[in-house]
Write a structure and sequence with these properties.
The structure is a single chain. The protein is 10% helix and 43% strand. The chain is mainly β. The protein has one domain. The strands form five sheets. It has a twelve-stranded antiparallel beta barrel with strand order 1-5-6-8-9-10-11-17-18-22-23-24. The protein has a four-stranded mixed β-sheet with strand order 3-2-4-7, with no helix packed on it. Strands 12-16-19 form a three-stranded antiparallel β-sheet. A hairpin with a 2-residue loop joins strand 8 and strand 9. It is elongated.
Length: 490
Amino acid sequence: MEIQMKRLFLCLIIIPINIFGLPIQSSQTFMLTKPAYFNIEAYNAFWHNTAYEDECKPMAFQLITYFQKSSTNKHKKKGRQFSEYFLMKDRSQLSVKGDDFIHEHNRDIRAEWLTLPSNFNGTFTLFPEQQQVAFMADFKYELKTHFAGTCFENFFIGASTAFVSVKNKLNLKQDIVSTQDDQTIFGALNRPDIAFNKFFNKTENTGFADLRFKLGTRFLFRDDIQVYYHSYVLFPLSSDTNAQKFFQAIRGFNDHIGIGTVVNIQIPLSYTCENYLFAFCLDIEDVFLFQNHESRTIDLFGKPWSRYLLLNKRDGTTNIPAINVLTQKFKVQSYNIIDISSGFRFQTGCIEAEITYGLWAHGHERLRDKDDKNRCKEICHQYGIAAKEGEFTPSGIPATASRSTIAFQAATDKDAQGNNIFVPITNFDLDFHSGASQSALVNRINGAIGYHFHGNKSDAFVGAGGFVEVSQNNAALNQWGVWFKLGAAF
């Protein structure tokens, strides 16, 4: 039986990760990045002994500092896919050309949609990068200190909070080939009449991310076998849901309330060795994020980057930036985010080291109208894609060109008699998928080493570790990081 269990544990950590293939995403407007402090390996390293080993020391705390930075090479094909997440399918660079160049049939964006002149010819690219520095304080207290009875014997309460500094960078670059005016692509994307998703090369966000209250229990803690569990309620301490900036730096889980579950298991693989411990460890953390109201920008179905089209309105207003209409408050459902780690732990004397393989994953978000009356859909029925200047319906309403895309302006819409008509955007045209963060799966290799101090009245530890993360698709960044921690029980 013992041999079978060992084989099972080994299989858990060497299952080929290629079975978790995820599609490459494109033309998205939002990415949910992993908080630096959401790292189950760093959280549990060395803490598993100090916080729970000695029942005579019911109070414990740990302090953890994290540094995390994206590490993708933008010059390689795999790296360019991270640009594609925000740009278009199979595009790490987009061309912007006016109608003077229409004979080339190879532009990605029609310059006139961005209010650039017809003789404009240029390209631009972006490449997302992120750096996070975080500090977490974690506290745990056993209930049996104040409550008698066996039902409280193994229960504990706790709390933690994280202070985070997030820096996002787009690495914006543009190349203007031809124009008679002193206009740029990013200037056009940031013009005053556009209210959302401004293109800033850098965005920063610093402050407390969330506060957690915990309740847990020890199921088993003897003969170096450890099984303990806790749940927590997560309250956000940040609010970054206004969609004012493209790839905006956000702290934590973007203002979502959550409920989390953490399970920690250690099973020794060296019962006959008295001088050292060699053990299998498995740590799992799952947090369910409740629905939240956030401003998101979406596109039209089958029309990537259509948020930068120009629209006409039934009331006679023309050339309205579509992004101002397609950015609305939505109900955002993020569901579960999970962090799993398994590996081996080695301990001799006061030295402890471990090496683990982990998975961080989340499913795709879902967006729904914020208001029960489908306000977003009602608004969209008032707008249509702009036709050429001077095109009106018989009733005097500016006509539309509904078959247009961001690359070209189609012919004016007409009825059976050949009259210009107004064809509005409907609820069936809205692509909620484009404004939601997409499914991601990240593979992580982690290593750590630390030192324990054992005393009669208190125990303490100090340690450090590092990790490398590789994403299965382009919906999460490749990253590396280091962390340092210390803690005590008394």
